[in-house]
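Justification of resources, computational component.

The compute hours requested in this renewal are based largely on the per-chain cost of generating structure records like the one below. Each record pairs the submitted sequence with a full structure-token output. That output is archived, and it is also reused by downstream analysis tasks.
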Amino acid sequence: MKAIIIDDERLARNELRRLLEEFPRINIVGEAANAEEAIPMIDELQPDLLFLDIQMPGKNGFELLEAIEDKVPEVVFTTAYDEYALKAFDFNALDYLMKPIDSGRLAEAIQRVEEELKKNTTTTENASSAVYLSENDQVFVKDGEKCWFVKLGKVRLFESMGNYVRLHFEDQKPMILKSLNSLEERLDPKIYFRANRKHIINLQWVDKIEPWFSGGLLVTLKSGDKNTQIEKIEISRRQAIKFKDLMSL
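The structure output for this chain reads:
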């Protein structure tokens, strides 16, 4: 299991590294003192787990997670402050360890991480053998008092809103209680493309493609309705490579 330690205090990083020597299945592949160092490291090394401090110079731990372009690794927060505990779990953290870190609590956190990774692996294996939802499949959507039977081919954009996903079709934008990651596992990857951490786009609705910052791309989607505002979605640098291959650009 690849892990990165992110903490602005060198002594805290050293102490955590020492404690993790008791867990040979944890492979520490990098350390960072702040978000500026950590973000490109996460992008390059693709860790399974972050041991992440919250209070740091520049971006704090929460802002770092928001800045990660693609799928966020599992997270165990390590902090000297207990007032962030509730917010930490809004970011789907698997555990929240108070400094100085107790070896017993660390063992519990690692067990929780291993169980989650095992569950995710099983889910991925099951999804790989499952039948994808295609553009012709209809889904039932209920948002408040309104209900729709929608053909997936009409949905041009799926947008993550925390624990919900907003569906963009025609001039409607209802939300469903589902994570974008779980939805992605069910959608046909030949038609629905994960543009970035927050968006999945329907490739059949792509109208225009432009170069964007840092090697990314900017995609303009076709308007679903005369009253619909034009939607521009950024494709992250890493996903842009996959996008070009998929679209033969």
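Residues 103-128 form the longest helix (26 residues). The chain has a mean pLDDT of 88.
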